[in-house]
């Protein structure tokens, strides 16, 4: 379909939607739903919060469509509505945390730790629907770069207005003037917020993104790393696991508060807990936050199968794993479309 025909179709659907045609409204927003959801995740650090925020934002847009005057694109207007919805959520709930935010690392394995339920934890994001490259010509970040764990975790250290300004400018390619209109403020205030936000993010995010690292590593080596991690976990092979890691590797497991830094501490934890004390593992490769991920299922004797346990998001430096973030809990598996259980294999009997 030509750009002219597409514009006419959008204008027609917009007129119908303003008259109360919800099917026309659905046709208007459906092509933008995935990128709006990713924006909500970047703002909020939680897939579940992003679900709620997007639903709320589209309801607000539907009810307020008669006030959309067409001075900006529909896409820009929907981002304005979604951003304000997320800012309301940030004001109510505050920021999401990672274990590293709560205290120093542990030198030795902590066994039998109870999850900390009163902390709003950062969660993983299913990135299968994200496109490659930037969301707009003027954007600094690629779409997948902008959901990488380090970037989203850094955003959580920003006040809501700085978070929104940085995302709208660097990820979505809005101008400072457009952001000022979106956030009902001045261009000077936007530029000030951007300056402060960039400084904090630069302190917390590596200069080389995971997307650049993964492209340099290559698909074949990446498959070897994921397969090696999975095999080591399933067979209890500490030597294979350690060979994949950098000297300064970290391992964290939200909602557990203890985390480990350095090869000695990580090895002690790995040997004492997942490689020894756990009853058995099966793993599936997947992708979260634009990064290689291993979905780990743990053996459940009573059910005679493997149940969801954690999504292990791997962060690479060169062709070694420098960070493992294990998001524990079966609820994380649902947005990824992963199986609710895995059966016993012949080799397990």
Automatic annotation (TrEMBL):
Matches recorded under InterPro entries: NTF2-like_dom_sf, RNA_pol_sigma-70-like, RNA_pol_sigma-70_dom, RNA_pol_sigma-G_actinobac, RNA_pol_sigma70_r2, RNA_pol_sigma70_r4_t2, RNA_pol_sigma_r2, RNA_pol_sigma_r3/r4-like
Domain RNA polymerase sigma factor 70 region 4 type: residue ranges: 150-199
A Pfam family per the record: SnoaL_2
Keyword Transcription attributed: yes
Keywords: Sigma factor, Transcription, Transcription regulation
Record-annotated SnoaL-like domain positions: 227-323
RNA polymerase sigma-70 region domain mapped to chain residues: 28-96
Keyword Transcription: yes
Subunit structure, interactors included: Interacts transiently with the RNA polymerase catalytic core formed by RpoA, RpoB, RpoC and RpoZ (2 alpha, 1 beta, 1 beta' and 1 omega subunit) to form the RNA polymerase holoenzyme that can initiate transcription.
Record PANTHER family: ECF RNA POLYMERASE SIGMA FACTOR SIGG, RNA POLYMERASE ECF-TYPE SIGMA FACTO
The family this protein is said to belong to: Belongs to the sigma-70 factor family. ECF subfamily.
Listed name of the protein: Sigma-70 family RNA polymerase sigma factor
Species the sequence originates in: Streptosporangium amethystogenes subsp. fukuiense
Lineage, highest ranks first: Bacteria, Bacillati, Actinomycetota, Actinomycetes, Streptosporangiales
